[in-house]
Design brief:
This is Cullin family profile domain-containing protein. This protein is 62% helix and 5% strand. The protein is mainly alpha-helical. Among the domains are: 129 residues, 5 helical Cullin repeat like (Up-down Bundle); 82 residues, Up-down Bundle (5 helical Cullin repeat like); 56 residues, no CATH class; 101 residues, Ribosomal Protein S5, domain 2; 83 residues, Winged helix-like DNA-binding domain superfamily/Winged helix DNA-binding domain (Arc Repressor Mutant, subunit A), CATH 1.10.10. The radius of gyration is 48 Å and the shape is elongated.
């Protein structure tokens, strides 16, 4: 009965009971709690709450803690702070915090019933939370004296000072700082204990980030002035790693992304432009193949921006500068005066193997063209290697590099022609004695640089011209490799691009069959009169497929350049007989077709006799025009001569071609079958020529070259003609595209029609807007289109 009455709180005296509790709390705080009975203390607190005195008990405990912290703990910490600094202050505060937590843990056990009943019912913070708030207010936020900083400010300053010492390479007690950080993380700005309002976040971290930003800002500016770019990159990376470790071991891991952002902003994002433009920056690294340091720059900027804008702009600027230098050098070389040397002769010994004479007077413009492509490929290979080894083949940087390469190539007006000449040179001699794998590499190089061209239609024009000469003059090393190249172009550029190129090979195959058929036809005639006739190997070419203007010379029955008159080549009877015989054979086989003889494109094999030569008879290979000139001297008396004008009158060979062939026959030292009077390099009016009976050669077989017979860079006049023809063909392509679009859409706004037309044609060339507008006007005039008058915006309607 007595116990029950006690538990009901009927005989509880608050002041007496509180006195017992207060004495016990004091003993707990002074670490003399070993003799206390916590069960008895719990019962006393329980009785007070049960007697509805919970609020008074709660307030008395809060007052006690406030007085204790203000009188004893604050004095202890402040005395230590005044007497000693740094680590001893931290250690002192750490100890006070830990003691307070232990003591409050004990008090919480004693006051458990009050927390569970009173605090819950009256929505008061637990006595433990209340005491933590009191620690914050009485210890950290209360100044030691008027005008003095609070302990929280002192703590923040000391931790920041310790961190600065750590950044400077001095040793600090990381665990001690971490313990004080735990304290700040356990305290809140207010008694509501909102998670985002921890004292660490609101008081310490903000100041830490602000001071860190100032420190790294100054350090970055100093390093940009004092160090090289590679050292700067390594230092920035080390600083980021250090801050990550510092947050993990010394501060709070929640600060890691924030301080990382600060370091990245101050050392990377705001300094990247300056870093790249340093004397030892990206340009220096590229020039000196500093691939590892370039990778450091890439890694740094990739941390702050996945687009890598500054590095990308720097790489594009370098490619543009280097590419512009290559273009300017090629332009300077192309403006040099072209050299017209007699083509070297090829002499063949008795075993039949060709022995090429050393090349003389190689056309400097052609050399410049080949050099330009080689340097462009070298430039691409260089930056591809950088992209692969320094930038981990990053798609963004790679795309920017490719875009800049395309800009460089397309900024050079002769790019299409030079690329075609590069392929031409490889097909004629570049792939000689190469393995299949090496040939594949060569072909791929050609496709790589072709891929960047925007005006692929101009390239097609030049490629057809050069292929035409290779096939007809038998200059190509391998027809199979030629076909492989066209197959690659087909994959890269589409069927329409290679259609005429494939037709050229088809004509060559059909011509071979036609020549064999003609030989069999002659053999079957069994006429004595034809038994010793000249043999004919013919190439029948489709006029719309072959760019025969590439040979720039007279066409039998065609209009001559500059002459304004029709000229027909005069053939010797033996040759005329063969020509007319083939025409009869062809007309029987293909009725309705007309043959136009391209004399400037043929060659012939002759038997030549020189009385004083080592060989009684020489086998001579020369052009058709050279054959006509040499056969002319068969009809003249011994030692008789003929003037330039007489030879022209008796052969009707166009004057320019006649001069070039006479240079080869009378000026070139190794094929001087004729004697020129007076002797000079140039062929002039009034010059006389006679048979050279004193000619002597140790070689049985001799090949006569012709000046300017090979592919070379076009002159200004030729280029203008090519551009004019190309613009005409572009006009037809634009009209065809417009008609296709309008036929499908029926009615379309002007702006949209322009956009769709440009899109359709962009794989062939870069359409000029003004040219599109002109072709639209032409289509309107020819009533393919009409303007829609009632449309709110300029529009067109298709007329069926």
């Amino acid at each position: 009965m007595l116990e029950t009455a006690g538990l009901n709180g009927a005989d509880v005296d608050f002041h007496t009971t509180w006195g017992i509790l207060e004495t016990a709390f004091r003993e707990i705080h002074t670490k003399n709690a070993s003799a206390l009975s916590f069960e008895e203390l719990y019962r006393n607190a329980y009785k007070i709450v049960l007697k509805k005195k919970g609020e008074e008990l709660y307030n008395r405990v809060a007052e006690f803690e406030e007085q204790w912290l203000g009188t004893n703990v604050r004095t202890l910490a402040t005395t230590n702070e005044r007497r000693e600094a740094g680590e001893k202050f931290l250690r002192s505060l750490k100890q006070a915090w830990e003691d307070h937590q232990v003591c409050m843990g004990m008090l919480t056990d004693v006051l458990m019933y009050m927390d569970r009943v009173y605090c819950t019912d009256h929505r008061q913070p637990s006595i433990f939370a209340k005491s933590m708030g009191l620690f914050r207010d009485q210890i950290l936020r209360t100044p030691v004296r008027q005008g003095a900083p609070t302990l929280l400010e002192i703590l923040t300053r000391i931790i920041l000072d310790q961190i600065q010492m750590d950044r400077d390479g001095e040793s600090i007690d990381q665990f001690l700082i971490k313990s004080n950080v735990y304290m700040l993380e356990g305290l809140y700005q207010s008694n509501q204990e909102v998670e985002d309002e921890k004292l660490y976040l609101k008081s310490f971290e903000l100041e830490f980030l602000r001071q860190s930003a100032a420190f790294y800002r100054d350090e970055g500016e100093r390093l940009l002035k004092e160090s090289d770019a590679g050292t700067y990159c390594r230092h920035a990376k080390r600083r980021i790693d250090e801050e990550n470790d510092r947050c993990r071991l010394t501060l709070s891991e929640s600060t890691t992304p924030k301080i990382q952002r600060v370091v990245e902003d101050e050392l990377i994002r705001h300094k990247m432009k300056g870093l790249i433009e340093m004397e030892s920056g990206v340009a220096f690294m590229v020039d000196n193949d500093k691939l590892h340091e370039l990778s450091l720059v890439f890694d740094l900027e990739a941390r702050v921006d996945p687009r890598k804008p500054e590095l990308t702009k720097a790489m594009q600027k370098l490619i543009t500068e280097m590419g512009t230098n290559i273009n300017n050098a090629a332009i300077a070389a192309s403006e040099a005066a072209p050299q017209n040397e007699p083509a070297p002769a090829e002499e063949q010994p008795e075993d039949g193997k060709s022995k090429a004479a050393p090349a003389k007077g190689t056309n400097q413009q052609t050399i410049a063209a080949l050099k330009w492509v080689e340097e462009i490929l070298t430039l691409k290979d260089r930056f591809d290697n950088i992209c692969k080894n320094s930038f981990a083949s990053d798609q963004t940087v790679s795309t920017a590099i490719n875009r800049s390469m395309a800009d460089v190539i397309n900024a050079f007006s002769r790019g299409s022609e030079y690329i075609s000449l590069f392929i031409d040179d490889n097909m004629k001699r570049g792939i000689k004695d190469k393995s299949e794998a090496e040939v594949d590499v060569t072909l791929e190089k050609s496709i790589v640089v072709l891929r960047y061209l925007s005006d692929k239609d101009i390239f097609e024009t030049y490629y057809k011209k050069h292929l035409c000469k290779r096939l007809l003059l038998k200059k190509s090393q391998s027809v199979e490799v030629e076909k492989q190249m066209i197959s690659r172009m087909k994959i890269e550029l589409g069927n329409s691009f290679t259609l005429k190129l494939e037709a050229m090979f088809k004509d060559m195959t059909l011509s071979e069959e036609l020549s064999n058929g003609y030989r069999n036809h002659i053999a079957g005639m069994n006429e004595d009169a034809d038994s010793k006739r000249a043999e004919l190997s013919i190439k029948v070419l489709t006029s719309m497929t072959w760019p025969l203007e590439a040979f720039r010379s007279g066409i039998d029955g065609g209009e001559q350049e500059g002459g304004g008159r029709r000229t027909r080549i005069i053939y010797p009877p033996s040759i005329l007989r063969v020509k007319e015989g083939f025409e009869r054979f062809y007309s029987q086989k293909y009725s309705g077709r007309k043959l136009t003889w391209q004399n400037n494109m043929g060659d012939s094999d002759l038997k030549a006799r020189f009385p004083n030569s080592r060989h009684a008879v020489h086998d001579v290979n020369c052009s058709t025009y050279a054959m006509l000139i040499l056969l002319l001297f068969n009809e003249l008396p011994t030692n008789a001569s003929a003037t330039l004008e007489e030879i022209e009158a008796r052969t009707n060979i166009p004057l320019d071609d006649l001069k070039r062939n006479l240079q080869s026959l009378a000026v070139a030292p190794k094929t001087r079958f004729l004697v020129k009077e007076p002797m000079s390099r140039e062929i002039n009016a009034g010059d006389r020529f006679r048979w050279n009976g004193e000619y002597n050669s140790k070689f049985l077989r001799i090949k006569v070259g012709v000046v300017s017979a090979g592919n070379k860079v076009e002159g200004d006049r030729e280029r203008k003609e090519t551009e004019k023809k190309n613009n005409d063909s572009r006009g037809f392509a634009i009209e065809a595209a417009v008609v296709r679009i309008m036929k499908q859409r029926k009615e379309l706004a002007h702006a949209q029609l322009l956009t769709e037309t440009i899109t359709q044609l962009s794989h062939q060339f870069r359409p000029d807007v003004n040219l599109i507008k002109k072709r639209l006007e032409s289509l309107i005039e020819r009533e393919y289109l009409e303007r829609v008058e009632e449309a709110p915006v300029p529009s067109y309607r298709y007329l069926a």
